[in-house]
Amino acid sequence: RYLLVFDFDETIINENSDDSIVRAAPGQALPEHIRQTFREGFYNEYMQRVLAYMGDQGVKVADFKAVYENIPLSPGMPDLFQFLSKNHELFEIILISDANMFGIECTLRAAGFYSLFRKIFSNPSSFDKRGYLTLGPYHSHKCLDCPANMCKRKILTEYLAERAQEEVEFERVFYVGDGANDFCPSVTLTSADVAFPRKGYPMHRMTQEMEKKQPGVFQATVVPWESATEVTRYLQELLKK
Tell me, what's the pLDDT at 241? Predict the structure, then answer.
């Protein structure tokens, strides 16, 4: 009946997993020469260099795993997932994230919520012959607002089209996120849908700015959250109706 879309970094988990894994690096920090290679919009390529450096420093599968498995979930997130587990026949749940598949799987399996997700869309990652964690781009796209490796709007639109072909239509779409790259897909939501931006994060600010500049263009109902308990409460009320 309902499609629920989650972001990962600073949404499901309470930090950015790409920053978190630096805890596995020597001295838990990156050298300045690596940090200076970051370019806006090319974060995926930057992370490829970070991971190559960490591989050179002897960081192994188990080291990465240990960090990912210990990343804290955001406030209220375990409660929301418990609620969704109890009502799993009403919600189809997917995850769209600019992190990486290996990290997301480690975190969700450790937290016990991996099986909730019908599909996870993220950058491909694997360990090569040397034991280095390698990262690739998810896809290429023409969106001017998103990083070169991922447009979440494109992923969500294609997913809805694919499900429609399989004769699965959703009454409503719910989108839970925090970042600028979550704002892009949320603009395509309809007046039946709900966007849950994390309070005070880029997605929230961008929805507010759009409402000021172009009233009515952003169609979805906006429900900001500080704790995912607020998302749970909203969904509980909806199910009572």
Answer: 87
